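Reader question, answered in our methods column.
A reader sent in the components of a multi-part assembly and asked whether the whole thing could be modeled at once rather than chain by chain. We filled in our standard form and ran it. Here is what they sent:
COMPLEX SIZE: two components
ENTRIES:
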Amino acid sequence: MLQTKQPVTVEKVLEGGITSPKGFLAGGTHAGLRYAKKDVGMIVSEVPAACAAVYTQSLFQAAPLTVTKESVSVEQKIQAVIVNSACANACTGEQGLKDAYEMRAKTAEKLSIEENLVAVASTGVIGELLPMDKIRLGIAALEPSELGAEDFQTAILTTDIVMKKACYETTVDGQKITIGGASKGSGMIHPNMATMLGFVTTDANIDSNLLQEALKSITNQTFNQITVDGDTSTNDMVLVMANGLAGNVPLTPDHPEWDNFYEALKRTCEDLAKEIARDGEGATKLIEVQVKGASSKEEANIIAKQIVGSNLVKTAVYGNDANWGRIIGAIGYSGVEVDVSNVDVSIGSIHMLIGSQPKTFSEEEATAYLKQDEVVIYVDLHQGDGVGTAWGCDLTYDYVKINASYRT
Amino acid sequence: MLQTKQPVTVEKVLEGGITSPKGFLAGGTHAGLRYAKKDVGMIVSEVPAACAAVYTQSLFQAAPLTVTKESVSVEQKIQAVIVNSACANACTGEQGLKDAYEMRAKTAEKLSIEENLVAVASTGVIGELLPMDKIRLGIAALEPSELGAEDFQTAILTTDIVMKKACYETTVDGQKITIGGASKGSGMIHPNMATMLGFVTTDANIDSNLLQEALKSITNQTFNQITVDGDTSTNDMVLVMANGLAGNVPLTPDHPEWDNFYEALKRTCEDLAKEIARDGEGATKLIEVQVKGASSKEEANIIAKQIVGSNLVKTAVYGNDANWGRIIGAIGYSGVEVDVSNVDVSIGSIHMLIGSQPKTFSEEEATAYLKQDEVVIYVDLHQGDGVGTAWGCDLTYDYVKINASYRT
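And here is the structure of the entire assembly that came back:
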């Protein structure tokens, strides 16, 4: 008998993070890869956790991704993640792969677990070998604990200005389920020094295949819908670990409270993604683009991302300039077929274009709205039911400054 | 009997331009759309000229493009072009279309020619109506002459800093053939105030269909291979007029000297395209990317353009930073399948990566090379015979400045 679906009840936990779900510990230490900041971090689950992961689409995948994929492939379970910042261990050939395997081995040895239960991630400069002496000392020094979420969040940052975390709670079978997350990434998605990494922990009991399906669907609506500069990294990865310690009956999409879990996971990923966009290199504002009336969700997402990724839209928002012609421009070259005679564009609640006809608006009002630190652009294509959202940031002098002199 | 092909002999004419080919006049005037700069321009051929044209891929095509396409469709001949800067006449609805038709009618009337022999182009801000009183006075005031090329070149500029022109001579059937060109565009390809426009004149005798084929093939190797900010305009257009006054036998690809004509046309377009890239908004350097060893010419072109369009590569070049990891990053997300284990990357003559292995190089030498005002990046994919080139510019503080405060 099909059970009635319950209303979705998900609560944000302001102070929560990756150690909020039952049975997860984390830590971070300064191993000397960076001048002073913590640079090696670890997450550990008390028991092996069902694992789902998505990786960069780049053909050049860094060594740690190769090793992590190998680990996950054995039994779709992960018990620990080891991460370093400062060096991406990408384009580093055979030695780079050996080093990533050694990071895995040293972590497994420290925790007395199988090597295939360890995932490895690195983020930083491409083409340089890891300083393995420092990495070894770092792994040895790590002391994961329930209080270590902040140390981990710090250890994975590169050009990021703020730590990124999220936590949501929900209920399944009367059991509290908690989902926590940490991410980094500032030039998204950025091949040199600001690779996007996301780590999500949960005590939910769920099979790894179902978790993978949920993650894939959610990634397309969250992490894949943010852009800072349109570039894609060699090291991007989002990894979810579900250790089952909440004690719920294993979750499936048929469960009446499946939506609670899906929504809590989605909101965790959306928060982490938005924080990456907001902290884009040099950014002063978060830009959100909401597209509706598209022929499909996919087309709405494409158009939303095209608008939020346009250098011209990004510079106009930085300059508090309600230059809607640039939004139209981005829609026009998105590759999606739209009815160009019936498009609405608004910035905040200010209508700029209705049915493709320019509307008179108050420049003062528009400028005042654009001066806020969150700007929302609305587009209605009047073609169908497809809705989609994308997030990005403005393009500023500081973006140029950060990236012009990065490596030197 | 198949005639033997001759060696290609094409000569650049440094001082030449759109009035260098026989029978072409041009002019430009200040009609008051801009504060002081000339803003309305005209090209006239003594006789109707075979015409070829390519237009923006954007779904939102401005009114002047609609009118020009209609003109060209009648007999594939054009005798005059009328252009204004400052206002793009895009997203301007019915009134905008009426205004573009009126620009065409007034020009035809002035020159006593059929309306369908007139092409119309506009470039400037989107969503504002043309000040037709000024446009009418401007058309009336124009006095096209053999000395008017510079006035025309100035009249079509927007945020451009320098005029863009080119001229080549070659020989067909013992007759001198001249090709001249003018272009504008600074944020390429840029929906607001720096639309890319190109106008090419030649006295060659060639059928419009063959001219169209040649233009399409050449555009893919020249105008379509430049990028300043990845945005595409509502108004982009390249128009070629061939009036036949050189008196050669009509050119066809079978003609032993076809390559002379094709190469002269290609070099004209390449010069105009490179000048647009070099004059990109805020740019301090021209960046050229040469890709070889790709599986096809198309794939080589895609990769070259992806590299030259990467914000991260552009900022690194601005900062004189030999950050080859960003070049690899752009190759990796280009969507083209490459053998990631065998890629060479050089900046100038300095090898950074050979067979995907990083090479030690002198940072001082690399920085010194990058400080030049033309930077060439070489990539070899070792997969096939496909070669391709793309041009762009660095991304600077001034790009942000120009575009953050443009409309206001």
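What stands out: The longest strand of chain A covers residues 40-55. The two ends of chain A are 65 Å apart (CA to CA).
Send us your own complexes using the same form.
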